[in-house]
Write a structure and sequence with these properties.
The chain is mostly helical and 183 residues long. It contains 10 helices and no strands. The protein starts with 5 loop residues before the first helix and ends in an 11-residue tail after the last helix.
Length: 183
Amino acid sequence: MQIQTNPQYTLSASERLPFSDKVVVAKQLSQSQPSDAPLSFEISGLVSTVSTLLWGRALGACQAGRGPALVFAATMLGALPVLLHPGPTAMFLSALLFGGSFLAGPTSITIVAQRQLPASSWTAAISLLTVGFALGQAAGPALAGAISDALGSVAAGFWVSPALLGIAACVNLLQRPARASSM
């Protein structure tokens, strides 16, 4: 019985708040209208609501850590447009891509936990995964801020998000398939 996803899940959570800040900064650095940032959050929320219906089937077909890896890679791609080309178009593209993938993270991790562990261990495992996620959400902004302060560049700290998501995606590919006795 092995579940190796908690460190990766913690890494993926580390990017959530810095991403939100990126959208606001992208708005400030570009020729965006004052209403663009709130609209991008609305688009992200709408897309995330609809996309959760689509991710379930795709994640159910993935084996081992491939589901979380796919989600984290998609979320990483969603974090990149505002970093590579600040402006309204990038902000809305980011809202679509990020919004369409970030809520699938908890689902993908829960699927791995359920496949790796006997049903009697699910509650404890998912609780520990949630604690790891919360730690990541607390550490991510602190890490991004520390990097920004150390390098004297807000943009440098924003690269923490896609970097951690990329690492989380790669490490999830190392997750072993469930053993028959775990099911």
